Amino acid sequence: MGIWIALVLVAFAAGAAAQTCQCNTMKWATCDGTPCVCTVLIGENVKQPLNCSALIPKCFLMKVEMYRAKKGQSVRGAGGKPVESAFVDNDGIYDPDCESNGNFKAKQCNNTEECWCVNSAGVRRTDKGDKNIKCDKLVETHWVRLQLTHKPVTTPLNASGLKAAIANAIQTRYGNFDKSMVQDVEYDADARMIVVDVKKPIGNRQHDLANMAYYMEKDVKVLPLFKNDELKFMPSLGGQNVEMENILVYYVDEEPPTFTMKNLSGGIIAVIVVVVLAVVAGLLVLFFAQRRQKRMYKQAQTSEMATMS
Ligand SMILES: *[C@@H]1O[C@H](CO)[C@@H](O)[C@H](O)[C@H]1NC(C)=O
Ligand SMILES: *[C@@H]1O[C@H](CO)[C@@H](O)[C@H](O)[C@H]1NC(C)=O
Ligand SMILES: *[C@@H]1O[C@H](CO)[C@@H](O)[C@H](O)[C@H]1NC(C)=O
């Protein structure tokens, strides 16, 4: 009798393990064994072990994407309809060098002779140079601005409830996230634009804004990285789910970047890294300038898409 109960319990345990041996935060991972170990291919026969209880570090994600792109494998969601904005995915991507914990190495060369320095989000913050370029340390991104455009809604959004709705949605979807980091939310109903500032105190190394922003970028562009890619980043407000259709991420680092202004824009993921003190004025100017130039943006995107195909 005791043996039977034990056997049943073992069977139960095995069943439960099989159920949960999967990687919710990385759909391309392979999981196996007891205890469950998940890995993902980041090179020919190079398996990167993953901690699937957390968001996968962006550096590993970029390696996976580069590897899959090289192999001609899809980097898109299986179920997600490709949308016009989906092409932006490859822009700004390179094959990064990662630390063993998933941090970016401060110096990146994309397997070429040309190198540059990046911030903790892996985004270039210096001009490109040769292999001898010096990058003393990895400079932390402590502020990201998410400029989201939402799809048309039936009832106008209640702007004063938006901040809480966004913070909740971020916490639900990207886990282990301190809601107080969602500091400012601006809303422009005519442009359907929501501007979200997510900031952490300078010196804070507990939270990583880059991973959260990267997962959100993928979610909005209909290429979710999560195993369950039917769910999306969708704030809920006044009984209405607000679906996003575009996102632009700006990065602000703890130290100002050193590249020349003319190299500042370019690519779809526009990258602005500004002096902390100049930032408020600067970004406001940009915000309004961009709204005026929305038409130009659209044209630029269309022509880039044409060259890609
Ligand atoms: C995996 O991530 C979770 C959540 O961040 C953390 O609590 C845990 O310590 C991590 N496990 C390992 C082995 O690093
Ligand atoms: C990195 O190299 C790949 C090809 O190896 C190229 O497609 C990509 O544009 C490069 N990215 C950067 C940022 O240089
Ligand atoms: C908008 O949201 C605020 C805060 O949640 C609430 O106090 C207010 O009544 C809402 N207004 C409308 C018109 O629903």
From TrEMBL:
InterPro entries: EPCAM-Trop-2_C, EPCAM/Trop-2, Thyroglobulin_1, Thyroglobulin_1_sf. The chain crosses the membrane at residues 264-289. Keywords: Disulfide bond, Membrane, Signal, Transmembrane, Transmembrane helix. CDD domains: TY (cd00191). The keyword Membrane applies. It comes from the Eukaryota. One of its GO terms (cellular component) is membrane. Residues 1-18 form the signal peptide. Residues 56-135 form the Thyroglobulin type-1 domain. PROSITE patterns: THYROGLOBULIN_1_1 (PS00484), THYROGLOBULIN_1_2 (PS51162). The keyword Signal applies. PANTHER family: EPITHELIAL CELL ADHESION MOLECULE PRECURSOR, TUMOR-ASSOCIATED CALCIUM SIGNAL TRANSDUCER. This is Thyroglobulin type-1 domain-containing protein.
